[in-house]
Design brief:
It is a single chain. The chain is mainly β. The protein has one domain. It contains one helix and 23 strands.
Length: 364
């Protein structure tokens, strides 16, 4: 089954800049990581500040404790506007709610740590998105794998998502795609069990109340695929594959695939492409060795200091398709609640975990 649905798109934006590949002896010390994006979507935008593992212990620079607290963080533009970020938890710093970048403005991130060390990003202009998403398509497919028992081919049902988009012929464009899957869930016993009297405490803490219908997030990935328009400048590209998902109980009631299409500057594209190349390395002799990837963050007092991460900006177009249960045959059915010890998610759907706040795009 294949289904095409057209949705109006929404443009947002993010920030990024210069990328240098530093081929130097790998450090055994931790490094500062500053990562974040500014978009033209009105919201609280996040900047993350942390320390990394040494390269030889974690080449992907996963953030570790101690987190960086009590830093002063601000974002300025080329018209002398400045916004101070507010510190949250775990080294996260946020712009005020409903703050949005403006197309055409040039933005710079500035960070002062609590020990006085000062860092800034190379400035970057927010560019418009170079393409529009015309359609979101889904198709029931199968993935194939070898059985561990007898080596036979095993087919597993999946749902594949792709888009049709039209590239701007007048600009050289770089793209990054991401997605967020959201699906509806319900608690079958939410209206038949009195809480907490009839709740078995051996299953965990009994909920104070019940909730029947919620929405859970299946995926939430901003970084998924990269491409440029070298081979399709000015053309309409149909059924460009974005991602696939196992056809399981997430498709029981309703499932929304939110596709995000970011435009990138050339330097931002090079940064993400370097990360993607390292992630895909399998360690063969035919591949280039891993190296430390330096983004666009610089120490004011020590330009040679290696600072990891990126403060980036790019436009994003968002489109979605919502599937009903009949669109995906053969899913696993509702969660098994007929047990001696009833799981909490069978009584209160928020224990999936999920939220009882209906997405504003969800059909009534």
């Amino acid at each position: 089954m294949k289904k095409m649905i057209y949705f109006l798109t929404l443009s947002y934006f993010i920030l990024t800049r210069c990328v240098d590949e530093i081929k130097v002896p790998l450090s055994s010390e931790t490094a500062l990581v500053i990562q974040g994006w500014l978009t033209n979507e009105p919201k609280a935008h996040r900047i993350q500040i942390a320390l990394s593992y040494p390269f030889d212990e974690n080449p992907l620079f996963k953030a570790i404790d101690p987190i960086v607290q009590k830093a002063q963080v601000d974002i300025s533009d080329d018209e002398n506007n400045l916004v101070q970020l507010i510190e949250g938890k775990n080294g996260n710093y946020y712009t005020p709610n409903n703050f949005a970048g403006i197309i055409g403005r040039v933005y710079t991130l500035h960070v002062v740590l609590n020990d006085g060390r000062e860092y800034y990003s190379r400035s970057e202009k927010l560019l418009p998105n170079g393409a529009t998403i015309d359609n979101v398509c889904f198709e029931n497919t199968y993935s194939e794998s070898l059985s561990s028992n007898n080596g036979s081919i095993v087919k597993s049902p999946e749902v594949s998502f792709s888009i049709t988009f039209t590239d701007n012929s007048e600009t050289k464009d770089f793209y990054r795609w991401g997605y967020k899957g959201v699906y509806e869930v319900f608690a079958p016993y939410s209206e038949s069990i009195e809480v907490p009297d009839d709740c078995d405490p051996t299953c965990g803490i009994c909920p104070d109340e019940t909730m029947k219908t919620c929405w859970a997030t299946a995926f939430d990935l901003e970084f998924l695929k990269l491409d440029d328009d070298l081979l399709f400048n000015g053309r309409t590209i149909e059924e460009y594959f974005i991602y696939s998902s196992p056809a399981d109980r997430r498709f029981n009631i309703g499932y929304a695939a939110n596709i995000e299409q970011f435009s990138l500057t050339k330097t931002a594209f090079e940064y993400w492409n370097s990360i993607q190349s390292q992630n895909e390395n399998t360690g063969t002799v035919f591949e280039s060795p891993n190296f430390q990837i330096r983004g666009n963050i610089i120490s004011k007092d020590n330009p040679d200091e290696i600072v990891l991460g990126y403060f980036g900006a790019s436009a994003i177009t968002v489109a979605r398709v919502i599937l009903e249960d009949a669109d995906v045959p053969g899913n696993l059915g509702p969660i098994n609640c007929d047990r001696e010890c009833i799981p909490l998610e069978c009584i209160d759907c928020r224990y999936w975990p999920a939220t009882n706040v209906r997405p504003d795009y969800w059909p009534l």
